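wait is this the right file?? whatever heres the structure
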């Protein structure tokens, strides 16, 4: 790479340009989606223009082409992830306990290395076998999900970065055996971390011990969920993930100590690099820490050679190495966050520090650098944070300015108390100092999270706006360096605007999305003029006692349904329709009421629902949202011609059946011009008979099949009356109920309906102009099936 850079003639940033070309070449193979590929093509074009303008030799374009082809070839040779599991039936699996992944309540997730290859996550109840134990486990082997709903993150890629290839569902330990003979480095490191975690807990408050463990090796399982959420909301969650900040702190501490001992620059850089990689391995050797170690190694190499440690060429060299060694990571969010953060520091930190010193001459040099570093870091990462975490932390600069400086001290004192563990009094002194540092971080995070508007909900900006923001930032710095202050501010304002308020196109179509919410149901309707109605809200059945405001149904609904609403740019719900009060239909209602303005909450009038339903009613009352129980014949109309005509709940209510709650579901017909769709909730055969006896027109182009496709609904007479062209079934994969029932699938096939199911197809999206409809699913454009089942 260095030789190619020297011969390229691209200019002083030759290695940076070649590294970018290599990374873009890898991304051209690994990135999916039209937006991502268009962005890669634009990046390659921009590099070509840069080479043409800055070239001193004719071979510059050829050098960039070679680097790009090298990245493409590496990505092609690496192919998909080395271990690709297919869903399998329940069977026995033998393997070794590698590590504890997370702990939640009475359950613990372990990393389990299968003898047949691959590492999976297994959730077990106590007693938990010790690290290194040999287990035989009965369970169902499952791959991690790709995105099941529009815009969702790829769980498979995220877990691969943690070294996990899949999971064993419904696992049960059949036998436990002793560890295998011989030395295994992974097990030795995992045992060392387990010992360290136990020693931290023995001498410190559990919350502070969990925080120190998170900063030392990224363990967050013991951290209280409320505190973890506050770190997320204040933009400081990165201190809990072993990556650039922590490895940088290790390198800085080692370099400072060796400089204090007058060790030559070359040797201090080499020793710091060795310590850096040792720490990366001890912390778990996960992809983010290895990537950070690679980036910092090039910085230390530059320092050893007498050059500037943070430079575009060092960053480009790191990008090239990662693109060649681990090309699958190039298109990931973690890669983008790491490089945008470092790139922003290189681009902005020095100008911001200089401006601070000019404005405030008495400001200490170190303080100016710290503030400049915090500002540059946030400038580089907040747009990606908005895209990934669906929120913006307005006080992130303040939070990082007070929390980040304590990270190095927390790590130092934590390491010292572990090293001094045999000398109890000395270890206790370090533990006390460490506890003070951790308390400082926790107190500040809690205080900042309590400020007004401490975090703002953000619609993810499109990919092109992120690229435009980066270009605007570069233009602003260039203008500022030339004294064009007004132009610099204008470029910066444009960059922020395209992220916060990117232009969005509306095509005048009605859109209906049946989300994949597992064994539950949640649908979102957006009218041609942007009115939004949530028909059922996902969740899960509530079994056992539930905590008000934080039931299992609400957590599930918030994670999927509310996240989809935010990603879709929906800022107001004109109505939430809850067909009946079961937790698998009402989960996101209370969280949505807390986040969005809501015009009305429409229910079937039930008074005996679970925790999630009661929370929804309570939130509606607290916010002055009218709660409406519709009568048959009531119509909700919008100004673009969209109508919701209510056909139920039945009046008088159906009583005496085994499933009265389901039978009294709200039934509503969506109408837009010639398009018709019928929502039936969990209404069963008794409700269908009542509808057939009424004078309502049940004909519909699309039917939400009642009760998740169970045999308790969808009678032949009802299906014949509706006669849908498209039948949508919301059900969970391999659900315990056996839904959808074979009888229902046969009946739908008999009337010629196309059957789409969330368990097989993921989310189902329908768009219509009132005359024609376009249907696609998360897994295919239009996988219409007339067969009874797969």
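ok assuming it is, sequence goes like this
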């Amino acid at each position: 790479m260095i030789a190619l850079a020297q011969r390229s003639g691209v200019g002083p940033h030759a290695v940076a340009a070649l590294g970018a070309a290599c990374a873009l070449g890898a991304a051209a193979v690994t990135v999916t989606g039209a937006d991502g590929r268009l962005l890669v093509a634009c990046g390659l074009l921009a590099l070509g223009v840069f080479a043409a303008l800055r070239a001193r030799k004719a071979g510059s374009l050829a050098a960039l082409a070679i680097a790009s082809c090298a990245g493409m070839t590496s990505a092609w040779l690496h192919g998909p992830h080395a271990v690709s599991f297919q869903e399998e039936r329940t069977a026995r699996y033998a393997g070794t306990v590698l590590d504890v992944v997370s702990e939640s309540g009475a359950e613990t997730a372990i990393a389990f290395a299968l003898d047949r290859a691959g590492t999976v996550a297994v959730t077990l109840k106590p007693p938990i076998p010790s690290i290194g134990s040999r287990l035989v486990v009965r369970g169902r082997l499952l791959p991690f999900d790709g995105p099941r709903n529009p815009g969702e993150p790829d769980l498979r890629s995220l877990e691969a970065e943690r070294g996990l290839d899949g999971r064993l569902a419904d696992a049960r330990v059949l036998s436990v055996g002793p560890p295998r003979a011989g030395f295994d480095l992974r097990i030795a490191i995992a045992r060392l971390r387990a010992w360290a975690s136990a020693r931290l807990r023995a001498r410190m408050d559990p919350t502070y011990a969990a925080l120190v463990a998170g900063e030392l090796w990224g363990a967050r399982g013991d951290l209280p969920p409320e505190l973890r959420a506050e770190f997320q909301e204040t933009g400081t969650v990165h201190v809990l993930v072993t990556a650039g900040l922590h490895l940088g702190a290790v390198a800085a501490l080692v370099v400072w100590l060796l400089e204090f001992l007058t060790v030559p620059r070359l040797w201090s850089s080499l020793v710091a690099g060795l310590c850096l990689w040792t720490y990366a391995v001890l912390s778990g050797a996960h992809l983010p820490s290895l990537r950070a170690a690679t980036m910092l190694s090039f910085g230390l190499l530059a320092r050893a050679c007498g050059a500037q440690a943070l430079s575009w060429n060092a960053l480009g060299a790191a990008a090239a190495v990662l693109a060649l060694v681990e090309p699958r990571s190039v298109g990931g969010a973690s890669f983008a966050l790491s490089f945008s953060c470092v790139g922003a520091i290189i681009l902005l930190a020095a100008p911001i520090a200089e401006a601070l010193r000019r404005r405030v001459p008495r400001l200490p040099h170190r303080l100016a650098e710290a503030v400049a570093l915090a500002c540059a870091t946030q400038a580089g990462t907040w747009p990606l944070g908005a895209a990934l975490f669906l929120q913006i932390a307005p006080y992130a600069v303040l939070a990082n300015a007070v929390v980040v400086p304590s990270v190095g001290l927390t790590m130092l004192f934590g390491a010292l108390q572990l090293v001094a563990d045999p000398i109890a009094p000395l270890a206790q002194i370090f533990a006390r100092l460490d506890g003070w540092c951790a308390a400082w971080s926790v107190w500040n995070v809690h205080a900042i999270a309590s400020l007004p508007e401490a975090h703002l909900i953000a619609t993810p900006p499109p990919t092109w706006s992120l690229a435009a923001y980066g270009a605007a930032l570069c233009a602003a710095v260039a203008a500022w360096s030339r004294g064009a202050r007004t132009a610099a501010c204008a470029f910066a304002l444009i960059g922020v605007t395209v992220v916060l308020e990117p232009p969005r196109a509306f095509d005048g179509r009605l859109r209906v999305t049946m989300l994949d919410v597992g064994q539950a149901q949640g649908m979102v309707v957006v009218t041609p003029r942007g009115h939004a109605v949530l028909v059922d809200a996902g969740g899960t059945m509530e079994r056992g006692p539930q905590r008000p405001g934080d039931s299992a149904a609400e957590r599930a609904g918030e994670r999927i349904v509310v996240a989809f609403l935010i990603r879709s740019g929906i800022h107001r719900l004109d109505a939430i329709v809850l067909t009946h009060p079961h937790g698998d239909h009402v989960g996101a209602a209370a969280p949505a009421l807390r986040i969005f303005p809501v015009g009305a909450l429409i229910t079937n009038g039930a008074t005996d629902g679970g925790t999630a339903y009661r929370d929804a009613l309570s939130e509606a009352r607290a916010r002055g949202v009218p709660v409406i129980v519709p009568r048959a014949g009531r119509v909700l109309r919008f100004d673009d011609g969209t109508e919701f005509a209510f056909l139920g709940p039945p009046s008088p209510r159906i009583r005496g059946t085994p499933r009265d709650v389901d039978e009294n579901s709200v039934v509503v017909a969506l109408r837009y011009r010639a398009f018709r769709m019928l929502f039936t909730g969990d209404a069963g055969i008794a409700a269908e008979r009542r509808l057939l006896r009424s004078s309502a027109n049940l004909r519909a182009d699309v039917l939400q099949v009642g009760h998740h496709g169970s045999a308790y609904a969808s009678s032949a007479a009802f299906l014949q009356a509706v006669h849908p062209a498209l039948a949508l079934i919301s059900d969970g994969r391999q659900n315990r109920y056996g839904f959808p029932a074979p009888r229902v699938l046969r009946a739908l096939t008999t009337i010629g309906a196309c059957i789409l199911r969330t368990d097989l197809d993921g989310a189902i999206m329908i768009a219509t102009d009132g005359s024609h409809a376009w249907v696609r699913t998360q897994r295919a454009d239009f996988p219409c099936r007339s067969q009874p089942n797969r």
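The first strand starts at residue 90 and ends at 104. so i think its the right one actually
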